[in-house]
Amino acid sequence: MTSNNLVYLIALPxxxxxxxxxxxxxxxxxxxxxxxxxxxxxxxxxAFEFLQMLARPSESRAVTQKLFSWISVxxxxxxxxxxxxxxxxxxxxxxxxxxxLIHIYSIAYMSHDLDRRRFFAFLNFFIAAMLLLVLGDSYxxxxxxxxxxxxxxxxxxxxxxQKPEYATAAKKAFIANRVxxxxxxxxxxxxxxxxxxxxxxxxxxxxxxxxxxxxTGIGLMLLLAATGKSAQFPLQSWLGDAMAGPTPVSALIHxxxxxxxxxxxxxxxxxxxDNAPTAQLCVVIIGAITLMFGxxxxxxxxxxxxxxxxxxxxxxxxxxxATGLGPxxxxxxxxxxxxxxxxxxxxxxxxxxxxxxxxDEVNMRKYGGLGKLMPITAITFGLGYLAIIGVPPFAGFYxxxxxxxxxxxxxxxxxxxxxxxxxxxxxxTAFYMTRVIILTFTGAKRWDEKAxxxxxxxxxxxxxxxxxxxxxxxxxxxxxxxxxxxxxxxxVNSHEVEHAERFQPVVVTTMALVAVLIGVAIAIAxxxxxxxxxxxxxxxxxxKIARRDLLQDDFNEAxxxxxxxxxxxxxxxxxxxxxxxxxxxxxxxxxxxxKGIRKxxxxxxxxxxxLILFGAFALLATIWVVTL
Amino acid sequence: MNSxxxxxxxxxxxxxxxxxxxxxxxxxxxFMCIELMLNAANLAFVTFARINGTLDGQIIAFxxxxxxxxxxxxxxxxxxxxxxxxxxxxxxxASLLKR
Lengths: 628, 99
Description:
The complex is a heterodimer.
Chain A: H1 6-23, H2 31-55, E1 63-73, E2 76-84, H3 86-109, H4 116-135, H5 139-157, H6 164-195, H7 200-206, H8 212-229, H9 238-241, H10 247-256, H11 261-268, H12 270-273, H13 277-300, H14 304-323, H15 327-357, H16 375-389, H17 395-408, H18 412-441, H19 458-479, H20 483-492, H21 505-527, H22 541-547, H23 552-598, H24 605-627
Antiparallel strand pairs in A: 1-2
Helix pairs in contact in A: 1-2, 1-4, 2-3, 2-4, 3-4, 3-10, 3-15, 3-19, 4-5, 5-6, 6-8, 8-11, 8-13, 10-15, 11-14, 13-14, 13-18, 13-22, 14-15, 14-17, 14-18, 15-16, 15-17, 15-19, 15-20, 16-18, 16-19, 17-18, 17-19, 17-21, 18-21
Chain B: H1 3-23, H2 27-52, H3 56-86
Helix pairs in contact in B: 1-2, 2-3
Domain NADH-Ubiquinone oxidoreductase (complex I) chain 5 N-terminal (chain A): 70-120
Keywords (chain A): Membrane, Transmembrane, Transmembrane helix
GO molecular function, one term (chain A): NADH dehydrogenase activity
């Protein structure tokens, strides 16, 4: 099936972005409304395509649109084509839906910013790039979108780049992402060398004839790309600093959509990972490490946005873990991605609402007792909280519980380890999210004298309310009757595999709920009493390490930055002394010898004649000696 | 008469000319010495033509005379101009081209 509407999904926001940037200040008055309408119309197109897709039988739901022939070199053909299938449409609806809500929210949130129009131009650019990422029908098309969202992320993290540390945060995110991007480009190159094509369909067709080594190589490089974009171990360190961007950006890009691109990439490449067990094992390990890593950082952060960022890292760890579990895991990963998109975006918007009322204060130790003053924010945030810790019947329960269950049921000793990690992660998640709730919305007020907390305007709490409804209902809607799993089945080739289950689902659910209860109980016991306004310094070594983001920056600085600087210094010195030195020596020798030779150029005709005479004699003498 | 004697004469004339160019300061004398060297060469050409029984050397001698005549015209003109401006024909005085 082909469709002619797909291109408008990308073209509309892309056009709007360029339009707003070129018009400049002239569009200041209406630019934000224009951008929001464009985003809403993209959502409209997505919804239209979704309804059409629903009407078709499941095997013919995918539609394509060829835009133009992009690269045509001999037998290597790459078209700029779009592919909308069951996986893409899930993302399209998430990106444009949550994106539009966040556009609406930003109208109010950014209303005091002089550069609001530029902000909306960047947001629309992000929407366009992200849609290209999920709609591209080949790795090369995906790569363009992949770089586009990286650029959008950089521009938006550094939106307030008048503050040097924000500009540094933007650079850090960009550089960490570049490392991952190298992985993606290498994966594309290996794929081309192995299969001779880079389109998803072409690679899937030829994947059975390829060697395991090549597939493992592609898989590991794709995993590297995913770790960069999705802030997974070991490229995770940029996400916390990325919170320098305006809060709507954190909600849209660094919680709901862009950071989940790694999960999309792995799910889209399911045919490669299913045939490369080593790469798949690495995916699981990375996911398990990151979900614990993020959760532990989350326990120690006093900055509400950084706590939520650590939580995002941890939740994406769950998704990556699920994608590594083979055909059964993909659907659960994407399902968790969608529910996470709702509740985490909702909570970030809630955090933005709190900051809006508290003069941009982010330190939770200076909040306290805000629940009464900001009831709507407290309720929507609370619903998101119940969703993320996995309390039934909220969204996170359905998706996360499935992941824990699938992890436990994978073969061998591996299942116990990753299942245990996922379960422990759920406990820690419950702890740190409860901590955020207690510190922010309950207890005694600890804010400054001059702060006047107030509820945010409707333009802000409206989107928060819609996202809260999503975080309540989406889990049940997606999982009832295995709806989402069968929806995605044609894309990820999943089929019902009956194997010996280690634990019955009800046992896993009970364990997860007990873990959540323990986490909540610990947090309540610890933070029920008065919380000091300044973080105590006489804490044990583990807390100190967690506050320093588990030493991720120290590690990067010690292992990568300092040796890199030393290498650079060495190279600069070598360049100056050896290479420049050689060139300068040649120059000095030439200058010195010409100074000596110049003395013969004295202007006296007779001395020239004498020299010529000597020369002639010397020539004759040479000839005489040679011919003798 | 032995043809080699002409070559000895040619060598002597050339040496006199060369020494004159190097040691004399008067431009006119230097000029005459150059002519002497040219004619020494001419004599050598003609002698070799005689020895080998060909006309090549004699033809080259004519060419040399033509070129020498042109050279004299240009050279004397330069010398006269220099004399007019500097009131001297010493080649050591005209040493301004060194830089």
